[in-house]
Design brief:
With 66 residues, the protein is an alpha+beta fold. It starts with a strand and ends in a 7-residue tail after the last helix. The chain contains three helices and four strands; from the N terminus they run ββααββα. Strands 1-2 form a two-stranded antiparallel ribbon. Strands 3-4 form a two-stranded antiparallel sheet. The protein has helices at residues 15-19, 26-35, 54-59; strands at 3-5, 12-14, 39-42, 48-51.
Length: 66
């Protein structure tokens, strides 16, 4: 076995990449990685918090108007 099919676009990619745990080709993996959006927010008298949902970020603001 020298190539494996990508689970998204069904194009073949190297078996070495599959052995590392990837199930997608480089192009599909890059596209999926660019869709993940996150930011860090400092919390008062606490540590930094990883925020992946925009509504959570709005709830952390104590001076919000809505």
């Amino acid at each position: 076995m020298t190539q494996v099919l990508c689970r998204d676009c069904y194009t073949p990619f190297a078996v070495e990449r599959f052995r590392l745990g990837y199930t997608t080709c480089l192009d599909c993996g890059d596209t999926a990685a660019r869709q993940v959006v996150f930011t860090t927010a400092p919390i008062n008298k606490s540590n930094y918090m990883l925020i992946t949902n925009v509504t959570e970020l709005a709830q952390l603001n104590p001076k919000r108007t809505s």
